[in-house]
Amino acid sequence: MQEFQVVITEVLQKTVTVSADSKEEAKRIAETGWKNADYLLDADDFKEVLFSMRRD
Questions:
Q1: Which Pfam families does UniProt cross-reference here (predicted)?
Q2: CA 2, CA 13: separation in Å to the nearest integer?
Q3: Which of 1, 9, 21, 25 is deepest in the core (most CB within 10 A)?
Q4: Residue 13 and residue 47: Cα distance in Å, rounded?
Q5: What is the C-alpha separation between 37 and 24, in angstroms, rounded?
Q6: 36 by DSSP, 3-state: which?
């Protein structure tokens, strides 16, 4: 019997609304909010799961 390393990747996704003067500023605001834990993603935000083989 052989052993294999299988990588399991879970994807969480949440849409947030921010007020900004541009798309770039909105992205910065959302990134800062995420880094500051203003937006917490949990099991309710589950989007998909991916399985892949780890390369040697």
A1: DpnD-PcfM
A2: 35
A3: 25
A4: 6
A5: 20
A6: coil
User: Model pTM?
Assistant: 0.76
| pLDDT of res. 55 | 79
Enter the tokens of residue 33: 């909010």
Domains in the chain: boundaries: 6-53
Can you give the pLDDT of all 56 residues of the chain as single tens digits? 999 999 999 999 999 999 999 999 999 999 999 999 999 999 999 999 999 999 76
Q: How many angstroms separate the CA atoms of 20 and 29, rounded?
A: 8
Three-class DSSP labels, 13-24: CCCCCCCCCCHH
